[in-house]
Amino acid sequence: MCRYAAVRHSLNTYDIINCEHKDWFWRMIGHTVAVYRDACTGMLFVYESTSLNKWTGISGVQLTPMRVWLRHYPGKVFVRRMRIVRGYSYWHEMKAAAHIEKFRGVPYPDMKDPKQLQYLANLVIDLPFGMFENEDRHDIIACTPLVVDFWQDAELYVGDEPPSEAQPDDTREGGRFENQLAEGVSLGKEIRLK
Questions:
Q1: What single-letter DSSP state applies at residue 8?
Q2: Which of 47, 98, 107, 183 has the fewest beta carbons closer than 10 A?
Q3: Rounded distance between C-alpha atoms, residue 120 and residue 117, angstroms
Q4: What is the torsional sign of CA 60, 82, 163, 165?
Q5: In a 3-state reduction of DSSP, which class is residue 76?
Q6: Distance, CA of 2 to chain centre
Q7: What is the span of the domain harbouring residue 53?
Q8: Are 8 and 44 in contact (CB under 8 A)?
């Protein structure tokens, strides 16, 4: 396990964090977030969509300071650093800021609404022949679809599958997300932060 302080300086916007909750039910579902480094202050944030952030009381798409988020997340946390051969640029920073501005506050799917609950179930269920597929939508968004849309908007992800079909296992080592990255873009091995 690597201490956060030891890798903090090398984390950057678009790095992916995969989580394993301490409770078996939530661990089975999984959780994926993205790192966002503020270009002006250098401060690191977690960019996520969640049903309820228990320490802020907020649901949906949000930015949480990474140190606070790590302290409170109840489980294991792994980071995968993003690499771009052609170089990370100011354009990527602008795309990240615009994406956050557009999505911040968008609700997480309401588990009491049957259609939105079906959207969540479709994320978890993978059946052949296109059964149980989600339409691409931005009025609600879950954790992994947010991260994949974040990458797609910056032209780092070029897969044909819509972000609304992404699930946490896709962004883990060996997941199908890796085979759909833009040329010159890669993800490093998982490093355990917590």
A1: G
A2: 183
A3: 5
A4: negative
A5: strand
A6: 20
A7: 4-192
A8: yes
User: Which DSSP helix (H) or strand (E) runs through 68?
Assistant: helix 66-72
Nearest alpha-carbon partner for 96 in 155, 41, 53: 155
Give, for 99, the enclosing helix (H) or strand (E).
Answer: helix 90-103
Q: Tens-of-pLDDT digits for all 194 residues of the chain?
A: 668 888 999 999 999 999 998 988 777 778 999 999 999 999 999 999 988 766 677 789 999 999 999 999 999 999 999 999 877 788 999 999 999 999 999 988 777 888 877 777 766 666 555 556 667 777 878 899 999 999 999 999 999 888 988 889 999 999 999 999 999 999 999 999 99
CATH of the domain at 81: 3.90.1720.10
Please state, in angstroms and rounded to a whole number, the distance separating the CA atoms of residues 30 and 155: 25
pTM exceeding the 0.90 threshold for the entire prediction: no
9 torsion bin: left (phi>0), alpha (psi -120 to 50), beta (else) = alpha
Residue at token pair 């609950």:
117
Alpha carbon distances (Å) from 194 to 12, 40, 49, 69, 141: 18, 27, 20, 11, 26
Hey, is 43 helix, strand or coil?
coil
Give the count of domains, the chain: 1
CB atoms within 10 A of CB 9: 9
CA dist., res. 4 & res. 1, Å (int):
9
